[in-house]
Amino acid sequence: MGHGFELYHEPADRFVADFIGQGVILPATVVDGTRVKTELGRVAGEHGHGLTTGTDAEVLIRPDDLLYDESSPRRATVTERAFRGAEYLYTLRLASGTQVPCLVPSHHQHAIGDEIGIRLEARHLVVFPRMATDLQRDKLPERLTTQIFSDPGYKPRQFT
């Protein structure tokens, strides 16, 4: 069993990713050993993910992976907001309709329906092989839930 930081940023599987913290799974395509492409653009992690270039994958996006950036061409619409003192936890709707969580400093106050600029900066990139069929994916809830798809080729990270 790993320490909290490792469990949150480098979960061994989908169950641990869901159990420790909030997030959503976005479809992705593997670009190379450290980068994937999502509807939010290309993002590189600090560590390799072990998947082959071109592989269909899924990437875990946590609220702290999305940054408020008004100068960004990537836009999202505020659909929910929760004040948390120093920050707001916004739920944002992407152009595709997918909803993602985003932490924004509380001095940047936005109303529901506002469009804001965002950028993806996930240093601890959590990537899983895409195993759900389109039919199964349609049945998945918007928010990350405990969905475990077996993959004999996936090697979970080992914690010490």
Write up this protein.
- With 160 residues, the protein is mainly beta.
- It has a single domain, classed as OB fold (Dihydrolipoamide Acetyltransferase, E2P), CATH 2.40.50.140.
- 11% of the residues lie in helices and 36% in strands.
- The chain is built from three helices and ten strands.
- It has helices spanning 4-9, 14-19, 134-139, and strands at residues 24-30, 35-38, 41-44, 56-61, 66-68, 75-83, 87-93, 99-105, 115-120, 126-129.
- The strands form two sheets. A five-stranded antiparallel β-sheet has the order 3-2-1-4-10, with no helix packed on it.
- Strand 6 (75-83) and strand 7 (87-93) form a beta hairpin.
- The longest helix is centred in the N-terminal third of the chain and has 6 residues, at 4-9.
- The chain is globular.
- The N and C termini lie close together (7 Å).
- Mean pLDDT is 81; it is low at 134-160.
Which features characterize this protein?
5-stranded antiparallel beta sheet; 3 helices; about 35% strand; about 160 residues; OB fold (Dihydrolipoamide Acetyltransferase, E2P)
Strand order of the largest sheet: 3-2-1-4-10
- The number of helical segments is 3
- Write down the overall geometry: globular
Number of structural units classed as domains:
1
Find the CATH topology.
Answer: OB fold (Dihydrolipoamide Acetyltransferase, E2P)
**Structural class, from secondary structure content?**
mainly beta
Q: Give a quick account of the main beta sheet: strands, pairing sense, barrel closure.
A: 5 strands, antiparallel
CATH homologous superfamily classification: Nucleic acid-binding proteins
In helices, the fraction of residues equals 10-25%
Share in β-strands: 35-45%
Instruction: State mean pLDDT (0 to 100 scale).
Output: 81
CATH architecture: Beta Barrel
Order of helices and strands: HHEEEEEEEEEEH
Query: Kindly, what is the distance between the CA atoms of the first and last residues, rounded to a whole number of angstroms?
Result: 7 Å
Low-confidence blocks of residues: 134-160
CATH class: Mainly Beta
Taking Cα atoms only, what radius of gyration do you get, to the nearest Å? 16 Å
